[in-house]
């Protein structure tokens, strides 16, 4: 047995009990008291506990290892019972195989991304170029900010977007009826001069605090960077960072889709009308 973490030759993919029972050399229960451990082959993490292959144990283990004895018989054991029956040799070998399995999973994840690289790149191109895609969203936002008729109340809008607020409120002079009603319900209180009124709710403000075009571009750049990266030579931390990124790719696509849907809502005629109203209110409040 070599000690290289990149030696995956003994590993077996074990997703459930049927992956154990279909192995020709698998025996359970195995009376291993006279038998010596040859190798720990692979760790497993099943969804449900499964009875131990050792006759001396038979407890259900959810997490365990597939082992092979010097007689060529394979069985599944738990971490503690494996050590009890096979000694320290088991613990050492189990640790190495667990580390190899975890490393193989990480490398496989990155390879899986590379295997789908062309598909991912064409999804990004489609996001760039579709009718209401990221290029469109960028251009619309720019022209909105430069719109000569609309004093784009950016600060106010960005603050609202960050806080998750949507309500556009106007303050107007209270009507005669409102003043009378206020007096009737609040005897002795200060008289009502002004009242607040909800003009409407802004749509798709999230679009302002996300940049779908940049998000898509970063995703594309990372795909090319990964292509030029030798994953096996990465430090454990860098490898983990790449795997986390890979596992988040679909979430990034979802975020871009979500932002684009918000852009469509933000740029609807109704919402632009409300933006004009908000701009007018802000303008008046400043005076
Ligand atoms: Zn056991």
| Helix/strand class | alpha+beta
Please tell me the overall pLDDT: 93
How is the largest sheet built, in terms of strand order? 1-2-3
Low-confidence segments: none
Helical segment count: 11
Tell me the number of strands. 5
Helices and strands, in order, run as HEEEHHHHHEHEHHHH
Q: Top keywords for this entry?
A:
alpha+beta, 3 domains, two-stranded antiparallel ribbon, 5 strands, binds zinc ion
Protein architecture, described:
This protein has 287 residues and is an alpha+beta fold. The protein folds into three domains: 17-105, no CATH class; 117-166 and 202-286, no CATH class; 168-200, no CATH class. Helices cover 52% and strands 15% of the residues. The protein contains eleven helices and five strands. The strands form two sheets. Strands 1-2-3 form a three-stranded antiparallel sheet, with helices on one face. The longest helix is centred in the middle third of the chain and has 28 residues, at 88-115. The mean pLDDT is 93. The site of zinc ion has 8 residues, from loops.
